[in-house]
Amino acid sequence: MISAKSAGAVILILALILLLAAGCETVAEEPAEVAEPEEAPEQEETEEPEIRVQHVEAVVSAHRLATEAGAEILAAGGTAADAAITVAAVLTVVEPYFSSALGGGTWALYYDAENNEITSLDGVGPIGSNATIEDYDARGGSNGIHQAVVPGAWDGWMLWLEEYGVMELGELLEPAIRIGREGYPVGTSMSGYLNAQSSLIAGSSYTAAIYMPEGSLVQTGDIVYQYDLADTFEDLAEVYEDALEQGRSQAIREVRDHFYRGPYADAIVEYSDAYGGYLTLEDFHNFEAEIVDPISINYDGGLEVFQNPPNSQGITQLLALNILKGFDFSGLGPDDPEAIHLQVEALKLAFADRHHYIGDPARVDIPLEELLSDQYAEQQRQRIDRESAMTWPIEAGLAVENELGGTSTYHIVDSSGNAAAVTTSLGFQFLVIGDTGIHINNRMRMSSTEEGTPNQLTPGYKVRHTSNPYLVLRDGKPYILGGNTGADTQPQGQLQQFINIVEFGLSAQEAADRPRFYTTAKPAGTYPYQVDNTLQVQENFPSAAREGLSALGHSIGIGGIFGSAHILIVEEGGDQAQVGEDPGLDTSYGIVIPVEEQ
């Protein structure tokens, strides 16, 4: 890969050579025209905007190797979409317990600078055709292939490659292939997750071959190799390359079919059949990801906040922000109990609406327009008592009824001003499908076994997916790209990021460093959907804030699942950026390449 500086130098040298050549031809043909050489600078000024980089480049993700690979793609001329595919593939190798471009699902937002348009990527698959509420209810608390839905991420990434990418698939997958074969060191975070699922790993021969190569679990500092996974990525790249003579679009179609209607679907379904899963070949053959319209609200100050539509839970953040924009935060700080109380109560109302209304829109009618209206936000705002905390059960805010009809987050901006906000996930499960190297998801635990709910487990339909990055526009251009992992923590952590940046003026890193909180005053989004009615806070949460919140009626709990936060802020003008790396994740890493360094 060439560096950004080297690329800029090459372009400048070529421009000078062309300029000198043009000048020499003019002198040779018309030596008497002394004014002719003065026209050369005018030609240079006309062409200069085509080669001048005008926008900052930045990448932030959960792993240094993924971030560096994404930055290399940008330096080689790739778009934010190209870099996003590379980051996804590398994370598949180095963070296989949380995300997989092959075995997981992805919700993402893309800002297309040329068309000034934001789209949402729905790269999540449906529940398998063989699933039943009765069978899943009996096994919902255990690990295994019965927890897997159709992995939709790969088809989604291929849609981005065709719609927004400019590089070839082999170039984008090369870093993942190389790292898989050369190996990478186990970090402290990965070691903790390996130990948490040691029994599952030991019970699967293909998984154990990777993580227990000598009979015992690898530990921090040990090298992990993903040979089979590298072979799978290389196979997909070769299918693409072999089909290129038919055109780029057909090559992408061949790769999609090779996965969903070829040997990888066969391998996953064979494994599912052997170990009690719900997936069928028909489930794979019928699946295709989609690029869909996002949902959004306007926040005070001219900001437009975009989220992924249902079946993503992203609307939860928007519902809470729509309520909060009617409160005055001036004079308050991020540690003030009153400010935290308002955020928590707004989130409780938003989660109540998630519970009562949000599921797969192909299965239930969702009143999106009413839920996101300013009138509804004002109605919900009036339900908040500044002096007292709500507890579950919390009623829905609309008088309408539904009618049947482990995660990783990263963010990228490129030199053209395109932006990608991504949350990709397989849940949390070390389960490898045969010799494919593919780690399969456990997203079934996001479906409800309670009949009559909008998120009811229904074969062929999608679970309410927890993945939901957000993207904020300021004056029509990308401003904040954010994400926070951790199932129900996601919209809560993301709301805190937004409020800390917009209302309290924190930088991206300051916002990522803030001790987080999350409310459990709602049915959990994962099996068995329990309600605790507590406000969980991190251990370093200010004691004065805890005391103030307790006085308002919050039942405070210490510890829990707070996920990891990654944030990218683009400065006005687009020539500078900030990244926020999660302080609790030893592999978290961000790169900013200002315009002058490209």
Number of strands: 20
Main β-sheet, spatial strand arrangement: 6-3-2-10-9-1-20
Q: How large is the count of helical segments?
A: 21
Structural class: alpha+beta
Low-pLDDT residue intervals, each spanning 5 or more residues: 1-52, 401-405
The overall pLDDT, averaged over residues, is 90
Over all CA atoms, what is the radius of gyration? 25 Å
Q: Which structural traits does this protein have?
A:
six-stranded antiparallel beta sheet, disordered N terminus, 40% helix, Serum Albumin, Chain A, Domain 1, 20 strands, 21 helices, 15% strand, 598 residues, globular, seven-stranded antiparallel beta sheet, alpha+beta
Q: What does this protein structure show overall?
A:
With 598 residues, the protein is an alpha+beta fold. It has three domains: 4-51; 58-290 and 418-446, no CATH class; 292-406 and 469-597, Serum Albumin, Chain A, Domain 1 (Orthogonal Bundle), CATH 1.10.246. The protein is built from 21 helices and 20 strands. The chain has a seven-stranded antiparallel sheet with strand order 6-3-2-10-9-1-20, covered by helices on one side. It has a six-stranded antiparallel sheet with strand order 7-8-13-14-18-19. Helix 15 runs parallel beside helix 19 (489-502) and helix 16 (337-357) crosses helix 21 (543-551). The radius of gyration is 25 Å and the shape is globular. The two termini are 14 Å apart.
